[in-house]
DNA sequence: AAAATAGAAAATTTCGAAAATTGATTTGAT
DNA sequence: ATCAAATCAATTTTCGAAATTTTCTATTTT
């Protein structure tokens, strides 16, 4: 991959997704301005193509826009992180309740498979001394697990909102959490969610989800992890 | 107001809001294409200004876009209406719970005032033979009531999502419901919401909200109203 | 007559440059 | 020296036209 064209292998991926991925993987810091010119040159786009992408990302709530002052990432602190996390918990719980009520054996199988993969990655992370190399794969695997957990919910509106909330909370976590949200306790949390879902215990599953997400929100206050 | 310039008096209102208002008041029909050219001429905008507005509205979920096939209103039927309504109910209930938990006397006063205005309009509607002339003011008053009800909720994310869900459900209602969502039973429904909110009865208030919104969703199946 | 093809028209998307706005720097006045 | 006005550079926003894609219509082919 030539240094002059860092996206040569991503030619089939839309420019929108490339910029969004950059945002979601921490290429910019919290509160920083996202200049159209920078996007334009960095991703080899025309001025208006770059602007349109930034507009779309603003529509998804991943960026903010100020009249005549361009686009910027949201500022992130304990309060904003917890706010988004709580909102996400509300939607994850609602989706999970619907999934548990409507999901069939096929759903159970997919959920078990997704958790198996996630547990595999997280086990490696617990054993590793450096988390960083795992973050990208873990982020994808974690998103997939929660996606499958919600997938038997019959409401397209709720599903779309949940996914968006997940993306927003993920972006904030990447921006401020030392280990991007992963901690040792994450492993039993995911196991507990799976267990209650398979038991068709809606209340228990929602409690597990809330605990999982709350613990993420609280991580910011105790940045004493010795792993990076 | 000259016929050639239907928006002369709205000069201080942004073009975005003018187009959005047109959408929200039923200027276009469900599923219909929203051609950039039409917006461009109808609202006296340049091609790219029109496109940018349509992009923003898509970001808010009020329009859909299909690659190289432009923008269009969502198709609306019993299922989509109920889906959005259920989602809105989830968020309204969450906001109401927070408001009841956090609202002070000032909030109670504003809520009472908002309900008083709403009840006034709705009383006139019950007495009237034609609903149409009241729809615009009623829509505003109803939105204000639900806005105030939610306003003591401390979560900006939840508040923004609730407002958006309200707008989307309102647009769908305008598109398909015969009386745009108003029925005689709406009056006691709003009263019940107020009553439980002031009593600080979270469960009761949520039940009242759910009943209120469910009854809207069901209206589409019984279009036997003799008023228009 | 139905299906397929080709060509024309309509609509969407993309583009790079012009216009307007903001923020920073310099200049001038008190 | 301080504050205000004016100038300048950087950035965002707006624009109308060019390029692409889709859609419609007419023609040809089976």
Tally of separate helices of chain A: 9
Task: Indicate the multimeric state.
Answer: homodimer
Which spans of chain A of ≥5 residues are poorly predicted at pLDDT below 50?
1-9, 223-228
Q: What is the alpha-carbon Rg of chain A in Å?
A: 18 Å
CATH topology of the largest domain in chain A: Four Helix Bundle (Hemerythrin (Met), subunit A)
CATH superfamily (homologous) name of the largest domain in chain A: GntR ligand-binding domain-like
Distance from N terminus to C terminus of chain A (CA atoms, Å) equals: 28 Å
Do you know the CATH architecture of the largest domain in chain A? Up-down Bundle
The percent range for strand residues of chain A is under 5%
Order of helices and strands of chain A: HEHHEEHHHHHH
Summing up helix and strand content along with how strands pair, one would put the structural category of chain A as mainly alpha
Care to count the β-strands of chain A?
3
Mean pLDDT of chain A: 91
The main β sheet of chain A shows up as: 3 strands, antiparallel
Shape of chain A: globular
User: Largest interface, per-chain counts?
Assistant: A-B, 18 and 18 residues
Helix content of chain A: 55-70%
Strand order of the largest sheet of chain A: 1-3-2
Describe the structure.
The structure is a homodimer of 228-residue chains. Chain A has 228 residues and is mainly alpha-helical. The first copy, chain A, has two domains: 6-72, Orthogonal Bundle (Arc Repressor Mutant, subunit A), CATH 1.10.10; 78-226, Four Helix Bundle (Hemerythrin (Met), subunit A) (Up-down Bundle). In chain A, 64% of the residues lie in helices and 4% in strands. Chain A contains nine helices and three strands. Chain A has helices spanning 15-24, 36-42, 47-59, 78-102, 105-127, 135-150, 156-176, 186-198, 202-219; strands at residues 33-34, 64-66, 70-72. Chain A has a three-stranded antiparallel sheet with strand order 1-3-2. In chain A, α2 (36-42) packs across α3, α4 packs antiparallel against α9 and α5 runs antiparallel to α8 (186-198). The first copy, chain A, is globular. Chain A starts with 14 loop residues before the first helix and ends in a 9-residue tail after the last helix. Residues 1-9 and 223-228 of chain A have low confidence and may be disordered. The interface between A and B is medium-sized, with 18 and 18 residues. Chain A binds a DNA duplex (30 and 30 nucleotides) through residues 35-37, 46-49, 51-52, 67-71.
